[in-house]
Amino acid sequence: MKKTNILIISGFLGSGKTTFIKKYIKEAESLEKTVIIENEFGEVGIDGEILKKEGINVKEINSGCICCSVSGSFKDSIKNIKKSFDPDTIIIEPSGVAKLSEIEDICRKYPEEFKILQKITIVDPFLYKMYTLNFGEFYIDQVKNSNIILFSRYSKFIEDENSLKEIIDDIMSKNKKTHIVENEWTSFNSFNLIYKENLNNSEEINQVDIAEHSCCGHSHDGHSHDEHLHKHSCCGHSHDEHLHNDDFESIAIHSKKIFTENEIRKTLNNFNNNDFGSIVRCKGTVKSESGYYRINFVPKEINIESDFKAENTIIIVIGRNLNKNKISKLFC
Prior knowledge:
- Helix content is 30%, strand content 26%.
- It is of the alpha/beta class and 332 residues long.
- It has two domains: 4-195, Rossmann fold; 249-331, CobW-like, C-terminal domain (Hypothetical Protein Yjia, Chain: A,domain 2).
- Helix 5 crosses helix 6 (136-144).
- The model is unreliable at 64-71 and 197-246 (pLDDT under 50).
- It comes from Peptostreptococcus russellii.
- Residues 6-180 form the CobW/HypB/UreG nucleotide-binding domain.
């Protein structure tokens, strides 16, 4: 039986996993036999919808983390995908607090059917120290069990005259075998990085085909087969869910309010203090005067983009000790 490659793209909440997968989709030689398993918090998926617009098969597993509360769904998913599609590659994007070690253990239960190609962890250098200190159990597990480390916001971090040496030294103290890529994502081809045959030293990874950064140049339209493993409905009010023994919570908000860019930026900036709980991630879409804004928040970083393709508003907030009433009022 031909084995299906499994590519795991791990990383804490808001690290840039979906952004990297979008880069990979553009640079891959072929995606006709590729399926993505997208796992998110709560009843509503956001990143899965983003990836579907790239024209690729996406299977969503929401309402929990694939390494714990919905691990049965994950096991069934990879088996069903293998049976139904027989793909060459399955890309797994776990939730931000999933343990990479546990996802790997599940995948290795079927050695005759699957082969783990790479275990990539995306690290935001601006937040590495804070997350290591505050969310060590999940965060360090992702670092310790990866074989490739990529930095998001690399150029901005270097431009701010920060040094990666201390972070790299700490990563290497936890995982001496991992390959750390000290380059901006735009400087290398992700497909070549992932399928590089010889990964015996980090220099080869760091220098992988930097001169060959290019897109595959063809459309992937027509390859999408949407299927939600968990259905949800927009009821106009918030849903919340407790995860990982109540360590993390999520709330989903459906807002009808129209925001200016300054107003939504000010709203998101409130999450940098603890008045609303310890918020580590907010993402989604809100209405603007001319369409929609796609919003992304991690501590001390806010990104707002116009999104004219959005069809409705949904905001997901993730953190600890969330003041759900105060958070909901911000968007009403």
